[in-house]
Amino acid sequence: MTTNILDGKVVVVSGASTGVGRATAIRMAQDGATVVLLARRKVLLDEVAEVIGDRAVPIVTDVTSSNQVRAAFEQIAAQFGRVDVLVNSAGVTRVRMIEEASDEDIAVSVNTNLLAPIYTTRSAIPLLKAAGGGDIINISSEITLDHMPLMTLYATTKRGLNGFTEAMAKELRRDSIRVTLVILGAVGDTAFGENFGPGDLERAWPIWEADGYLTRMSGTKLLLSATVADVLHNVVTRPPELMLDVIHVRPASS
Asked: N or C: which end of the chain has fewer CB within 10 A?
């Protein structure tokens, strides 16, 4: 009888309804994990759960709400008593100059990209300790390495996530909890386009091309969510004595 390496493990994925989060949840379940799916939209969560099958535990959660995050992890604690892996994949952006940004633009960016992973991490830590240790993976962007015009809100909040990840890696290492930052290039098959309002992309694309950001960073090729999911699977299944602080994933050639 074949034993999967993640048999008996509980993996929690935020932003599990689309893109990298969805692909990661499916990949972890394929290797035997029970996967707790956190996202706001029940219809999309149910679709992912149907793909995964019995190993999926969908919990409709707005991860920008501390109360909803607490409630979700209380359910996880009651059902499993442990968490082995937390993947913080939820993210949004707004294509704006700062002088154009509304209060809602700022709040959505800060709450989703920075506060949400803080909330989920805070709630997951006792359950990771109960499991004897585990992994936290925070998904960031290569925009933190090279500024992209009109994306200051996204870059600033992701840089905050980078700093939070570094701090957590030091704070939790004595508890055998490994915290890894995964910096991604552009991923093609995500719901990221939902962040663009009418005319946003048409306005931004010539500016991005003139700046040269797209060529300097990801180039003309895009990553696939399934490829990223394989990388994250490798992160959590590496030998327990190994630490990977930062991983930068992008296409090998343009």
From this structure: N
